């Protein structure tokens, strides 16, 4: 893939109608007097990269934390594949097909890249404590499969050269790719990326854009991307949702959202 992340053609922005993989209906979250989300509704269609933008404090991370069931919402509902997330505890979310990366890297520094990636398959493993302790044949088979899959993802993310190095020794940009590989080990249908470009240099952001598009197109994983780097969001997203002060300002193609007067005003410091 030779496209630049900031080249809209590279995103292959999709026009065909798509079904909603994720549907957020009228969700509100309050922390005391602070209204972090105020009746937010939008859909993230299957097969899309959906970008979620907004100035600091707009409510993006709060929404991600709702999707991971780390925060509770007071009104509305969030559905994944038509199923409400409301009754589910956080540890069931990955098994449902929602994977995520975090703003701050969450890798085990003393473990190798391969070991870190393999851990990501834990939520899809069917073996329990007893079968693991007894090392039953199917547990060994699962381990072999996990090793094979981790190696494939390491190849996909061009991490072969560092697969056996401790994650803590690697440069920041490389560690971010390890985190992506680990999130993909869980076979997500939807991958939540929380500011993946933070701390990356220009070349690394371009490479990240190509990786995001490849995850969508080659692996068939839909993506919800929270990001401040406008070049990246506008270059890779099929649709964009803009928030400010917990409210939705605009939703549409990258071009429509970029040109929306409320979005322009929000980024220039205006309050709706
Ligand atoms: N756990 C919490 N307790 C109290 N207030 C919170 C909590 N989490 C978020 N908030 C508040 O909710 C609002 C939205 O914050 P949030 O972190 O979701 O914004 P954001 O769009 O992710 O911002 P940034 O781009 O800076 O990460 C802010 O006013 C924030 O201070």
From TrEMBL:
<dbReference type="InterPro" id="IPR032823">
    <property type="entry name" value="BCA_ABC_TP_C"/>
</dbReference>
<keyword id="KW-0547">Nucleotide-binding</keyword>
<feature type="domain" description="ABC transporter">
    <location>
        <begin position="22"/>
        <end position="270"/>
    </location>
</feature>
<keyword id="KW-0813">Transport</keyword>
<dbReference type="GO" id="GO:0016887">
    <property type="term" value="F:ATP hydrolysis activity"/>
</dbReference>
<dbReference type="InterPro" id="IPR027417">
    <property type="entry name" value="P-loop_NTPase"/>
</dbReference>
<dbReference type="InterPro" id="IPR003439">
    <property type="entry name" value="ABC_transporter-like_ATP-bd"/>
</dbReference>
<dbReference type="Pfam" id="PF00005">
    <property type="entry name" value="ABC_tran"/>
</dbReference>
<dbReference type="GO" id="GO:0005524">
    <property type="term" value="F:ATP binding"/>
</dbReference>
<dbReference type="InterPro" id="IPR003593">
    <property type="entry name" value="AAA+_ATPase"/>
</dbReference>
<dbReference type="GO" id="GO:0005886">
    <property type="term" value="C:plasma membrane"/>
</dbReference>
<keyword id="KW-0067">ATP-binding</keyword>
<protein>
    <submittedName>
        <fullName>ABC transporter ATP-binding protein</fullName>
    </submittedName>
</protein>
<keyword id="KW-0472">Membrane</keyword>
<dbReference type="InterPro" id="IPR051120">
    <property type="entry name" value="ABC_AA/LPS_Transport"/>
</dbReference>
<dbReference type="Pfam" id="PF12399">
    <property type="entry name" value="BCA_ABC_TP_C"/>
</dbReference>
<keyword id="KW-1003">Cell membrane</keyword>
